Amino acid sequence: MFRPTGINMNRKRGWLERISTLATQWTDSSLAFVLAVGIILIWAITGPLFGFSNTWQLVINTGTTIVTFLMVFLIQRSQNKDSMALHLKLNELVAALPWSSNRLISAEDLTEEEVKILREHFHKLVELAKQDEELNQSHSIEEAEAGHTRKKESRKARKRSRRKNRPKQQ
Q1: Residue 27 in contact with residue 78, Cβ under 8 Å?
Q2: Which residue ranges make up each domain of the chain?
Q3: pLDDT digits (tens, 9 = 90+) for 5-45
Q4: How many Å apart are CA 53 and CA 47, to the nearest integer?
Q5: What is the CA radius of gyration of the chain?
Q6: What is the spatial distance between Cα 49 and Cα 43, in angstroms, rounded to a whole number?
Q7: pTM above 0.70, yes or no
């Protein structure tokens, strides 16, 4: 199995990454929601005790502002990590398919105009696929591995051919 050098899949994450991952997982729980509702209820119930004063209002406003500020960063971090992982998985699929274009690897780095051109190209392919009669055809892992080997051999053959056809220097 291919593993890029320098990547240890069993490595320990840094303390900041561990804390943010735990916070993201915890805030996604039912307990976190119940706790938030409980805090709001306690705040609302204590309103008459404090005469609905400015300080009483400031407490909830300050608390919600701080929580919102921190949550923006947690959500952004989580979405970025998920997005990168999804792109890597899609890149792996593109690289593994025998007849796919490796130019699509890291397509997220293309310009908007380049993405539009590719979208139009694939729209044409969808129209052709709709005309195909066998829509339920599937592929196995063995077919994917054989396709990868074919792609690899094809690239080697092209390189050999280019070297062979290169003009000799005098």
Answers
A1: no
A2: 15-96, 98-132+141-163
A3: 556 656 778 888 889 889 989 998 999 999 999 999 999 99
A4: 8
A5: 27
A6: 10
A7: no
Rounded CA separation 170/67 (Å): 73
Kindly state the tokens that stand for 148.
Answer: 């990868």
The stretches of 47-111 forming alpha helices (DSSP H) are 54-96
Q: How far apart are CA 25 and CA 78, in angstroms?
A: 10
Give residue-wise pLDDT tens across range 63-121: 999 999 999 999 999 999 899 899 888 888 888 887 777 777 778 888 999 889 888 88
Which residue carries 């053959």 as its tokens? 157
The amino acid sitting at 148 is H
State the residue for tokens 């992982």: 85
Cα-Cα-Cα-Cα torsion 74, 78, 79, 84, nearest 10 degrees, comes to 140
CA distances from 31 to 24, 36, 58, 72, 155 (A): 13, 9, 25, 20, 55
Q: Which two tokens stand for residue 119?
A: 């979208």
* Amino acid in the structure at residue 57: Q
Could you tell me if 94 and 102 are in contact, meaning their C-beta atoms sit under 8 angstroms apart?
A: yes
Q: Which two tokens stand for residue 87?
A: 């792109």
